[in-house]
């Protein structure tokens, strides 16, 4: 998931990053998620492992 780093947000603080993580934490179909290496998006993205 690419949510961006929030550099265009007010005060350059990320908005979507926290909301996406909170949403993923509530989803039963999500087994795990983590921040990828910088070359794959770093703090502007998440790798998600889904059930199934």
List keywords for this structure.
alpha+beta; single chain; two-stranded antiparallel ribbon; 52 residues; 1 helix
In short:
The chain is of the alpha+beta class and 52 residues long. It has one helix spanning 16-26; strands at 30-34, 47-50. The protein contains 1 helix and 2 strands, in the order H-E-E.
Write structural notes for this entry:
By secondary structure, the protein is an alpha+beta fold. The protein has one domain. Helix content is 21%, strand content 17%.
> Mean pLDDT across all residues, rounded?
95
Number of domains: 1
Judging from the principal axes of the Cα atoms, what is the shape?
Answer: flat
Number of strands: 2
- Give the strand order, joined by hyphens, for the main sheet: 1-2
Distance between the termini: 18 Å
SSE string: HEE
What is the strand content? 15-25%
Helix content: 10-25%
Count every helix, treating DSSP H or I runs of 4 or more residues as helices: 1
The largest pleated sheet is described as:
2 strands, antiparallel
- Give me the secondary-structure category: alpha+beta
Uncertain regions spanning at least 5 consecutive residues: none
Write down the Rg. Answer: 12 Å
Present the secondary structure layout.
Elements: H1 16-26, E1 30-34, E2 47-50
Antiparallel strand pairs: 1-2
């Amino acid at each position: 998931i690419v949510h961006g780093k929030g550099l265009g947000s007010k005060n350059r603080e990320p908005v979507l990053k926290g909301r996406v993580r909170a949403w993923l934490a509530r989803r039963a179909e999500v087994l795990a998620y983590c921040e990828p290496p910088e070359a794959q998006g770093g703090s502007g993205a998440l790798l998600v492992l889904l059930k199934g």
